[in-house]
Design brief:
By secondary structure, the chain is α+β, with helices and mostly antiparallel strands. The protein has 6 helices and 5 strands, in the order H-E-H-H-E-E-H-H-H-E-E. It has a 5-stranded antiparallel sheet. Strand 2 and strand 3 form a beta hairpin. Helix 3 runs antiparallel to helix 6 and helix 5 packs antiparallel against helix 6.
């Protein structure tokens, strides 16, 4: 086994303004530690407290959704693995996360993200309030409030992609720019 050339990787990270990058099995302890490091980095950069709170909230929502999905689908190979990147682009923060999903679940989430991306701020606010009033049981345990809240915080529409891995698995990527 050869030692990876981390200098080249570091140069790519610097060029693409990647501050945090994680690839591998995710669990609650890792979510917490990476979140703490991210928050500390942002505070060290003297970002506004409201920006730090929004970035941290989106990171937590995305990573906890991945962990919950993996917990609900233990039969899906690779479901506990996640890819998480926090970077800067055009002066804004970008949080991207991806994980292995069942193809139908991935298609449904991409469809949902596209619906939210087509809405303006007023429509997202109204949808959030409507979903908030729905009984949890009627929404199959999830109101999608986290996804709607991310769309509300975002400075541009959410984006999601789905890439087939094999007949039973796809890789879902979600991008939020703040």
């Amino acid at each position: 086994m050869t030692t990876p050339d981390l200098y080249d990787l570091r140069e790519i990270f610097d060029r693409k303004q990647i501050m945090v990058c994680f690839n591998g099995p995710i669990n609650a302890a890792l979510i917490e530690e990476i979140g703490r490091a991210l928050r500390d980095y942002l505070q060290h950069q003297q970002e506004a407290p409201s920006a730090v709170a929004d970035i941290f909230a989106v990171y937590i929502e995305m990573t906890q959704n991945i962990r919950r999905y993996a917990d609900q689908h233990p039969e899906l190979p690779g479901a506990t693995n996640a890819a998480i990147v926090v970077s800067r682009e055009d002066g804004r923060y970008v949080i991207s996360a991806g994980n292995v999903v069942a193809p139908q679940d991935g298609r449904e989430l991409v469809r949902r993200v596209e619906e939210l991306a087509a809405m303006d701020r007023a429509a997202l606010k109204a949808l959030f309030k409507t979903q908030l009033r729905q009984p949890r049981e009627a929404l199959n345990g999830s109101a999608g409030l986290g996804l709607i809240d991310m769309a509300r915080k975002a400075s541009c529409p959410l984006a999601a992609t789905l890439r087939d891995i094999d007949s039973g698995r796809s890789f879902l990527s979600l991008r939020v720019m703040l």
